[in-house]
Specification:
Layout: H1 2-27, H2 30-44, H3 47-58, H4 64-75, H5 86-95, E1 98-100, E2 109-110, E3 114-121, E4 127-133, H6 137-155, H7 159-162, H8 166-181, H9 183-196, E5 203-204, H10 210-215, E6 219-223, H11 238-256, E7 258-260, E8 268-272, E9 281-285, E10 291-293, H12 296-307, H13 314-322, E11 327-328, H14 338-358, H15 364-378, E12 389-390, H16 392-412, H17 416-428
Parallel strand pairs: 5-9
Antiparallel strand pairs: 1-3, 2-3, 3-4, 4-6, 7-10, 8-9, 11-12
Helix pairs in contact: 1-2, 1-6, 2-3, 3-8, 4-16, 6-8, 11-16, 11-17, 13-14, 14-15, 15-16
């Protein structure tokens, strides 16, 4: 039966790719091409959209506008009534004294893994949010993994595919998606980040009812946070909210060493509190299915690089970055021929110069440019024997920036670096590490 499913997936995948490439060849409309292929992949299995997005980003095949469109799509993923676990919802309503605010056939939001509902607790009339897994999501995930691995096996016969490192990319994303299906792990993530951020007055993380997930492994019950989505934020408030998003990212990564791994616009609520003069702008952070932990040494080196980013020449920053743990093994950099080290240092310096000082924009495309150039050098026969490769820390940084790109693109516009400079000065050049 599995082989039949795999062959059917292979046939459908090739039909989709062939027909869409044919249409694109005639009309050259990239945005429509991405939109159509995404919807067709979602019709087969919504999880394929995440893999497609990761592949396109990793190979610089899409720009910021298209990436932002894909982020919105995965946050408002298509669903049908077959995805709704009515039995668990009815049981939850009765046993836990809840009153749903909406029709159970109409969730207020839908992600790749789960559906979201609003409810009130009958005991105290407080507002809560219910996040429940799509019905049979584990089976959907298993089917997706089997199909993708079979697809990778077929593609392995084509030498051109090797340059895109598809197998490595698929395996990394499969691992990430598996973590998102584990709600017990997500509850632990919420508790950890909430404790880390307890002194951050501009960040709200919902209280979570751990006992509910202990009882219903496919449900997370949490406090409802009042805020608005990014498309309802007024332009006059962009800078205020942008600074808080940047602060949250810098503090959780560089101070706590544990940060949100999927900080796209759908996972942030924006709260304007006119009664709080010091923290008028606040953000509510949701969905902790993915978090990234940065090891202590890399965190310390990254802190040093970031805190001095705007004071040092680009070449000095590049030297520190290359020895910060983004490449492993670090010691091998000292052993490669000097001309190769100079080349790596030069293109790293150029990217930093263009990103930080010239364009005033920073995004995942710049990082992928660096990664692509770095991989090219890794193929050189004179240095492959040293085993240089991008570190796990570097890959994590890529993913963090890729997910946050939609938020920063909207709120910061073309002034990312100016705002980042202000935030870094507030956080690290004063005593305001809050």
């Amino acid at each position: 039966m599995n082989k039949y499913k795999e062959l059917l997936f292979l046939f459908n995948a090739f039909i989709i790719i062939f027909t869409e490439l044919l249409i694109y060849a005639f009309f050259k409309d990239k945005l429509s091409f991405i939109d159509r292929i995404t919807k067709k992949l979602a019709d087969i299995n919504i999880l394929y959209v995440k893999i497609f997005q990761a592949f396109a980003l990793n190979n610089s095949l899409i720009d910021d506008k298209i990436n932002n469109m894909l982020l919105k799509f995965t946050d408002n993923a298509p669903w049908t009534t077959r995805d709704i676990d009515f039995d668990t919802l009815f049981k939850l309503e009765d046993d836990e004294q809840l009153k749903f605010q909406d029709n159970l056939s109409e969730p207020i939001n839908a992600g790749m893994i789960s559906l979201v509902y609003r409810a009130k607790k009958r005991t105290d009339n407080s507002d809560v949010i219910i996040k429940i897994k799509r019905k049979n999501i584990e089976q959907m995930l298993d089917d997706a993994i089997n199909n993708l691995l079979f697809f990778m096996y077929i593609l392995s016969f084509f030498p051109l595919v090797q340059k895109y490192q598809l197998r490595e990319l698929v395996n990394k994303n499969i691992d990430i998606i598996r973590h998102q299906v584990n709600f017990n792990e997500e509850v632990q993530n919420i508790l950890k980040i909430k404790n880390n951020c307890k002194n951050l007055k501009y960040v709200k993380i919902p209280n979570v009812f751990k006992d509910i997930t202990d009882k219903y492994s496919n449900v997370i019950l949490m406090e409802k946070i009042d805020g608005v989505p990014i498309h309802q934020v007024k332009e006059e408030d962009y800078e205020g909210f942008a600074k808080q998003v940047l602060k949250f990212g810098f503090v959780t990564t560089l101070i706590h060493g544990v940060t949100h791994g999927d900080l796209h616009s759908g996972n942030i609520l924006f709260i304007k509190d006119e009664n709080d003069t010091k923290y008028k702008y606040k953000i509510g952070v949701l969905d902790f299915g993915i978090i990234f932990e940065v090891d202590t040494n890399h965190k310390s080196m990254l802190f040093e690089v970031i805190s001095e980013l705007f004071n040092n020449p680009a070449e000095i920053t590049a030297e520190k970055l290359l020895t910060s743990g983004i490449i492993e093994p670090v010691d091998a950099l000292k052993l490669i021929p000097i001309e190769h080290y100079k080349n790596i240092l030069q293109f790293t310096t150029e990217i930093i110069q263009n990103t930080v000082y010239n364009s005033k924009q920073a995004n995942q495309i710049q990082l992928y440019k660096f990664l692509s150039q770095f991989k090219t050098y890794m193929c050189d026969s004179e240095i492959t024997k040293y085993g240089l490769k991008p570190s796990d820390n570097f890959v994590k940084t890529q993913l963090i920036l890729a997910m946050a790109q939609g938020v920063t693109l909207t709120l910061c516009k073309d002034d990312y670096m100016t705002l980042a400079d202000k935030v870094i000065n507030e956080l690290f050049h004063t005593n305001m590490i809050l």
